[in-house]
Design brief:
The complex is a heterodimer of chains A (about 325) and B (about 290). Chain A is about 35% helix and about 15% strand. Chain A has about 325 residues and is an alpha/beta fold. Chain A has 2 domains: about 30 residues, no CATH class; about 260 residues, Rossmann fold (3-Layer(aba) Sandwich), CATH 3.40.50.300. In chain A, a hairpin with a 6-residue loop joins strand 10 and strand 11. In chain A, helix 2 crosses helix 5, helix 5 runs parallel beside helix 6 and helix 7 packs parallel to helix 8. Chain A is globular. Chain B is α/β, with parallel strands linked by helices and about 290 residues long. Chain B has one domain: 3-Layer(aba) Sandwich (Rossmann fold), CATH 3.40.50. Chain B has 10 helices and 12 strands. In chain B, helix 6 links the parallel strand 8 and strand 9. Chain B is globular, with a radius of gyration of 18 Å. The chains are: A alpha/beta (about 325), B alpha/beta (about 290). Chains A and B meet through helix 5, helix 6, helix 7 and helix 9 of A and helix 4, helix 5, helix 6 and helix 8 of B.
């Protein structure tokens, strides 16, 4: 891969790989240049020689671009559908409520980008200028980048294997004109795979300030979250804390609180204790949260009286405190 | 016809599997694993002779072992390949394979890039002693990426046996991803049996009021729009959540306590949940066209 300093046009995610074969094992693989799929690839020789195994040539450009970003925070969870994107959005809105702060949101969930919908900007497109791709701005001080802006229609599926996803993530970091940011929030897909490894390795030099891990109370989700925390330890990312989402539901009719997802093994609080990470708080399930996300409006601004809003704001305060801001 | 299909280790291994049902959804946490588990349980229960396998290819977040109450079970190696883990003890009509069985500690993370995942999936299909199965249910991770592409690639020689069930929740954000999943099945020529809307409404246990926690009806609408069969909607069922979350399995009693009884505790408890009768209707809609086919 050749790193170009000049911004290239936003890629079309539906195109066939530019010059990597369908089953490219990835340049950092031991099989690089030696796998069956490599036969006939124009890069085969470079890969087989081991030159490609060195540091990614994009790295210096990423570091340069990230030099003007003060805080880089990852939003993680091993499990899907626990509210990573929703939480990322609330965090973004809460930071952006301060006019003096510049916040950027980067959605590295390539196969299931939800951030554009949650911010109500799903129909926007990415424009490129001489200084790079411009993020889509929700408001003056809140810029967003997602693969969702690059698809011809929201129906289109991005069927990519790892190496192509990694390529796009590196472009999100080096080719997007983020400008000077106080916070860059990175929303990730579920799991512990290519996207996570890539973001960690690309940001290694620039430094990641920490990760906020999201869970729901039931053991099936906690199992995956334990793995995610294990992943953070393996790659050396500081866990800012754990947020328990969908914790309890208040019936709008009888006002009684019930547990939809029962914390059969003690929920997020126990997990945080067991694994020695900070428990940031529990956000109750409020049907209006999901609805706000569907309509692309800020839940915090729309329903300031909801107990969920109080919980969110309290958690955000704690995150700021943990970061020392 | 069989001679025209290219033989691979995967096709040889799956020769005696009648139908392969892939459970997918673009979005995570919509209940793929819970639907897969229920599907496997119900297909097994729908006839006294049905044999069902369940393969969990969510490599970085395997949930099936927990849901079947098989957490911490080791996988045995035999001269004929890996022996899947049986969930119903002596009856041996429900077997399961997941990366969860291969981990030493439950908090161990599997941090793998695509090529390693590809290799694991190939092994799951070609090295596991699946034997004779009426149905093999495959639970997939969210998205449309490495795992899905690898799965379909390895299953290409048995493509005529494949079909998919799409799971979604009713809110727009999830439907959007379900749509991507549908585009994926179209691009890969995978027949879709239908769509299930999960977490559609929650009945308050105190007053019986139905709250649409994640909105409602979106799945049915999408099915209509896209010309898919709508298989049914399932409400949020706390009893089911609790059952699958804390399933303790029967392996502890395998030592001989109730070996004589034909009981399969999880199935019996499952049938008592409010979801079970709803799901049996879904299974009917899935089984009928498949039976007609064979």
């Amino acid at each position: 891969m050749i790193a170009v300093q000049q911004a290239s046009a936003p890629p079309d995610p539906l195109s066939v790989p530019t010059n990597a074969p369908e089953h490219c094992p990835g340049t950092e693989s031991d099989l690089a240049g030696k796998a069956d799929a490599c036969a006939g690839c124009p890069n085969q020789e470079v890969c087989a020689s081991g030159k490609a195994k060195g540091p990614d040539p994009a790295l210096p450009f990423v570091t340069e671009r990230m030099a003007s970003v003060k805080r880089k925070i990852l939003i993680l969870s091993g499990k899907g559908g626990v509210g990573k994107s929703t939480f990322t959005a609330q965090l973004g809105w809460a930071f952006a409520a301060d006019d003096d702060l510049q916040t950027g949101i980067m959605d590295v969930d390539i196969c299931g980008p939800s951030i554009p919908t949650i911010f109500g900007i799903a129909s926007e497109q990415v424009h490129s200028s001489s200084s790079g791709w411009s993020p889509v701005y929700v408001q003056d001080n809140l810029g967003v980048m997602s693969v969702g802006f690059m698809l011809p229609s929201s129906k289109d599926a991005v069927m990519w294997r790892g190496p192509k996803k990694n390529g796009l993530i590196s472009q999100f970091l080096k080719d997007v004109d983020w400008g000077t940011l106080d916070y860059l929030l990175v929303d990730t897909p579920p799991g512990t795979s290519d996207e996570h490894l890539s973001i960690v390795s690309y940001l290694k030099e620039s430094g990641i300030d920490g990760a906020v891990v999201i869970t729901t109370p039931q053991e099936v989700a906690l199992q995956d979250v334990r793995r995610e925390i294990d992943f953070c330890r393996k790659v050396g990312i500081k866990v800012i804390g754990l947020v328990e989402n969908m914790s309890g539901f208040v019936c709008p009719n009888c006002k009684n609180e019930t547990q939809i997802f029962k914390p059969s093994t003690g929920g997020g609080r126990r997990l945080a204790e067991d694994m020695g990470v900070e428990f940031l708080g529990a956000v109750p399930l409020d049907p209006r949260i999901g609805k706000s996300a569907d309509y692309g409006i800020s839940f915090l601004d729309e329903y300031p009286d909801s107990p969920a809003t109080t919980a969110y704001l309290d958690i955000i305060e704690k995150i700021k405190y943990q970061l020392g801001d | 016809m069989a001679s025209s299909i290219q033989e691979t280790p995967v096709s040889r291994r799956l020769k005696n599997v009648k139908h392969i049902i892939i459970v997918c959804s673009g979005k995570g946490g919509v209940g793929k694993s819970s639907v897969s588990t229920q599907l496997a349980l119900s297909l097994r229960g729908s006839s006294p002779t049905n044999k069902v396998g369940i393969l969990d290819i969510d490599l970085t977040g395997p949930s099936i072992p927990r849901m079947l109450g098989l957490d911490g079970h080791p996988v045995h190696q035999s001269s004929d390949g890996w022996v899947p883990v049986y969930a119903d003890g002596e009856e041996r009509r429900l077997c399961c394979m997941s990366v969860g069985f291969l981990l030493k500690k439950k908090e161990d993370s599997v941090v793998w890039r695509g090529p390693k995942k590809n290799g694991m999936i190939r092994q799951f299909l070609s090295d596991v002693r699946w034997g004779d199965l009426d149905y093999l249910v495959i639970d997939t991770p969210p998205g449309t990426s490495d795992e899905h592409l690898s799965l379909l690639e390895h299953l290409a020689p048995v493509h005529s046996k494949l079909s998919a069930v799409i799971v979604t929740t009713p809110q727009a954000v999830a439907l959007l991803d379900a749509m991507k999943c549908l585009s994926f099945t179209r691009a890969t020529n995978l027949p879709v049996l239908g769509l299930i809307e999960n977490m559609s409404g929650y009945v308050c246990p105190c007053c019986g009021e139905v709250s649409n926690v994640f909105s409602t009806g979106g799945g049915e609408e999408m099915a209509k729009r896209e010309g898919l069969k709508f298989l049914g909607s399932l409400p949020v069922d706390t009893e089911l959540v609790t059952l699958l979350d804390a399933a303790e399995g029967d392996h502890s009693s395998n030592a001989g306590v109730d070996e004589s009884t034909k009981g399969f505790g999880l199935w019996e408890r499952y049938q008592k949940t409010p979801t079970a009768p709803l799901f049996s209707k879904i299974v009917e809609k899935i089984e009928v066209p498949l039976r007609a086919e064979s």
